Amino acid sequence: MSRIENIDTNEFVGQVQRIKAMAELATRMNVGSRMGMQYDGERDIAKALGYPQTINYNDLLSAYVRQDIAKAIIDRPVKSTWRGDFKLVETHRDDDTPLELAWAKLYRTLRIKQSFLRVDKLASLGNYALLFLGFNDVNSSEALVNPVLKGVGRELLYLKPFGQNVVQIKEWDDDTSSPEYGSPLVYQVDIGEASSKKSRMVSIHKSRIIHIAFDLLDSEYEGAPVLEAVYNRLKDLEKLVGGSAEMFWRGARPGYAGKIDPEYMLTKDTEEGLKRQLDEFEHNLRRVLMLEGVTLDSLEPQVVDPSMHVDIQIQMISSITGIPKRILTGSERGDLASTQDKDNWLDLIQMRREEYAEPKIVRATIDRCIEFGVLPAPEKEIYKIKWQDLYAPSTKDQATIGQIRASALKNFTYNPEAEQFIPFDAFLTFFLGLEEEEVEYIKKLQKTSERIITPELKELSDENAPTRRERPPRETPREDEVPK
């Protein structure tokens, strides 16, 4: 038997994957090392500006934890994506289906939205993140390496998000007939609490894991970290913001230049006393100087406004992340942003929901729960995720819209000839912008009010209604009555 035949297949695939990962890492390092090189390597702009050639997960995590704008870049889109509750909707029936009821209970008891939000942040920070589904089919952590067992009474007990820094891919799926061939099969996860600084490595099968990667490019399982493309700009902002504070600290308070009178004899004791007074003055221990033979001239403060330079860096970050500048630096809901900025921001969040959050996180979790019997199967094998409407008008907007509609309706109803040109239903739909269901509801209310008014009440109302007094026809005046 040859040496190749003695090699375990899974071990061989693992070696191939490790070699591939090392090759990808080497390629990235090579790309990073070539960044900013000019004149055949004679000029290294990145090195001159202090930009690192390679960036690892800890660098990005440190930026997120310590730098305000880096935290905003991650938190603004994630929090806006998961703002409000979302529901699983299977049919348009008035009563809830078994799937809808089971999901609503699971959503509430396990606080699923909070877990989704956390794993979204972790996936945005690194190349990927994991959402560990804790099923009740095992009694020990050692058994987590096995696939989930299907059976009656299967339950989901908890969800745990894990970042890339505590995860290693231990084995890969080498089954060529599997639709997930070449994907991670077993993960090695450090489930120890970071606060206790105790490591506890556990092997977990992929059926218990939702693998989440954001902004995929050349890999199906590793995306591009959000902060990676703007990391240099973050470093520039640190220089500008920190440098401006240091500049103000050193330059706002004027320095002094001392001049000794040429005719004055400075003794050693006088020199020591002068130094002591200046030190006490510098450290705010003395406000009055007793000088003899020395004149102090105040130097002009050297302070420059850095706002224009900071704005350029913010603008560059906004252009690559898609976060409008006013929303990035203002409130999370964009109250300080213009209407166009707000619309663009909402479009970005809506696209993020549809193309990433819903298929990669929400539906992936629901489908896994349906597969193992935690949730009942849908009646028609189709269900929808109903998010909170991002474009719903605020209370102030609703009041303004209602006022405008009421004014338009008043003008329409006061003109009796208007309905000859535009039917009332068409006016409600095209001019007031009401939906078909809303128009039907208004017509239903009209019919209800007509039934309430009985013929007797209508006759009584007609009798008491004021009638227009007819003016008698005026005779044509005679010629002698016409004034001359």
Give the helices and strands, then pairings:
Elements lengths: L2 H4 L2 H26 L2 E2 L4 E2 H5 L7 H10 L1 H14 L5 E3 L8 H12 L2 H14 L3 E7 L20 E8 L3 E6 L11 E7 L10 E5 L3 E4 L18 H21 L4 E5 L7 H15 L11 E5 L8 H15 L3 H5 L9 H33 L12 E3 L8 H19 L4 H4 L2 H8 L4 H17 L2 H10 L20
Helix pairs in contact: 4-5, 5-7, 8-10
Characteristics:
484 residues; single chain; flat; three-stranded antiparallel beta sheet; mainly alpha; 12% strand; disordered N terminus
Briefly summarize what is shown.
It contains 17 helices and 12 strands.
How far apart the termini lie comes to 138 Å
Order of helices and strands: HHEEHHHEHHEEEEEEHEHEHHHEHHHHH
Largest sheet properties: 3 strands, antiparallel
> What share of the residues does DSSP label as strand, in percent?
5-15%
* Strand arrangement in the largest pleated sheet: 5-4-9
Average pLDDT taken over every residue: 80
Class inferred from helices and paired strands:
mainly alpha
Report the principal-axis shape: flat
Count of helical regions:
17
Secondary structure tally: strands? 12
Rounded to an integer, what's the Rg over CA atoms?
37 Å
Low-confidence runs: 1-7, 332-336, 465-471
